Amino acid sequence: MPDSLESVRREVVGCARCPRLVRYRARVAQERKREFRNEEYWGRPVPGFGDPSARLVVVGLAPAAHGSNRTGRVFTGDRSAAFLVRAFHDAGFANQPTSVARNDGLHYRDLYLTAAVRCAPPDNRPTPEERGNCAPFLERELRLLTETRAILALGGFAWDAVRDVVPRVYGGERPSAAFVHGAAVFLGPSRPMLWASYHPSPQNTNTGRLTRPMLVDLLKRVRASYGPSASPRTRHP
């Protein structure tokens, strides 16, 4: 059977490759945070979400313990999500400025959002081995997202995850460029451009290392690199 984003989604949700992450995500979902004690946590790996015809693919780090691990949708229900999705909305990629629950009506236009690791890690620190276990999912997503013109990595960990899969998806050598906010790497003719941004974590946003105008400006620069008009086949799964 041909591969599909729906097949990737099902396999992500059913994955149990990383024992440490399986134990942690389940424990968090059972114990819960006090303010969410009456909610049922997702407690499973979190699949990508967005427009299958997207020209921009954004890759984050991993689900937050009480964000995506609770809500079941990537960058949903925590402070990083609030910052990021507001920037997506300001830049014209999201239909609303908030991302709080799977059924909140959020849609992305010309953007697909995914992550280097699909399970919440202890202390928000997945290992390179865990990233490697998730790499086939990212590789398959990039192969299936055939309209991709740009890939934006949020943070150095996601930057390395994308660099790892680039040769298998697009051919050529692994990009050697170091992570620097705003960096753009040419991967070759008819291939996406790889871009870098600081991760929208509170450690970066609370200190002003990353501001919303900075991120909105970068998103607009990325879109300008491949053209202003939206994908004509925009759909939302």
What are the salient characteristics of this protein?
Uracil-DNA Glycosylase, subunit E; 237 residues; 38% helix; 6-stranded mixed beta sheet; alpha/beta; 6 strands
Total domains: 1
**Proportion of helical residues:** 25-40%
- Classified in CATH, the superfamily is Uracil-DNA glycosylase-like domain
Q: What is the ordering of alpha helices and beta strands? A: HHEEHHEHEHEEHH
Highest CATH level, the class: Alpha Beta
* Low-pLDDT sequence parts: 230-237
- Count of runs of 4 or more consecutive helical residues: 8
Rg over CA atoms, rounded to whole Å, is 17 Å
Q: Order of strands across the biggest sheet?
A: 1-3-2-4-6-5
Structural class of the secondary elements?
alpha/beta
Question: How many distinct beta strands?
Answer: 6
What's the end-to-end separation, in Å? 20 Å
Query: What kind of sheet is the major sheet?
Result: 6 strands, mixed
Please identify, by name, the CATH architecture.
Answer: 3-Layer(aba) Sandwich
Shape: globular
CATH topology: Uracil-DNA Glycosylase, subunit E
Classify the oligomer. Answer: single chain
